[in-house]
Design brief:
Length: 243
């Protein structure tokens, strides 16, 4: 099982969940390029201007560790990174668990798509992030995580990230549109949808599940966007049921 974290975080976000699967799986956690303990000397703003660069990194990781039939568990934007790897032909992933996924954050009224944000919302978010990253982190992280200890931990994680790299990743994340890639995800997929998720509301999770052939949709009691921090027991139980 390979666990990948979301925006502004690192692999420690999975420390309450991943160990629960070590008894019957080889468990791998890793940091997305530019975050956590990754080698930032290898960072390229051009390569990571879209999620494709991170998807290519995932494929390289799977090949480097010679993993086959892996269960990829991605939180938030990382869930789409896993989906992109599969859609681009990676055969080393045998199943996907997508926690709070969103293929597009901006609403598309012409297509009847609800992403949760208007174009002005995302433009304002990116402007605020780029002008005062620490202030943005302190204000937004508790809202994203749903408050409490999870909010405090997410704030600390955001504040550890390099502001310039975080700005690049924010643009790659919040301006992405990978709706057309979902139909090419041909592996068993579990979509976990949190309650009261301000980043990926119910309509988004339902859209992802409806767009991936044969996927399973589960609504969680956990609130916020980070059940791996706020509700690890429920998260473990739902993943365990799937795998």
């Amino acid at each position: 099982m390979v666990f990948a974290h979301g925006f502004g975080c690192d692999q420690t976000m999975w420390r309450h969940v991943a160990p629960a699967f070590e008894s019957d799986h080889r468990v791998v956690t890793y940091d997305l390029m530019g975050l956590g303990g990754s080698d930032v000397t290898q960072y390229s703003a051009e390569r990571y201007s879209s999620l494709e660069g991170h998807a290519a990194d995932l494929v390289a990781l799977l090949e480097g560790l010679d993993l086959h039939d892996a269960v990829f568990v991605g939180h938030s934007v990382a869930s789409m990174i896993g989906a992109l790897a599969v859609a681009r032909g990676c055969e080393r992933i045998g199943a996907l668990v997508m926690v709070g996924p969103s293929p597009r954050y901006i609403d598309d009224p012409d297509a009847g798509y609800v992403g949760g944000f208007g174009e002005a919302d995302i433009a304002g978010l990116l402007e605020s992030l780029e002008s005062n990253y620490l202030g943005w982190s302190a204000a937004m992280a508790p809202v994203i995580a749903g408050g409490g200890e999870a909010g405090e931990e997410l704030t600390a994680a955001f504040c550890r990230a390099d502001p310039a790299i975080a700005a690049d990743f924010a643009r790659a994340t919040f301006l992405s549109d990978n709706r057309d890639d979902l139909a090419a995800v041909g592996v068993p997929t579990l979509v976990l949808q949190c309650s009261d998720d301000v980043i990926a509301p119910d309509a988004v999770g339902e859209y992802v599940a409806a767009s991936i052939p044969g996927s399973t949709f589960r609504k969680m009691n956990a609130t916020g966007h980070c059940p791996n921090l706020s509700a690890p027991v429920e998260t473990i139980a739902m993943i365990r049921e799937f795998v």
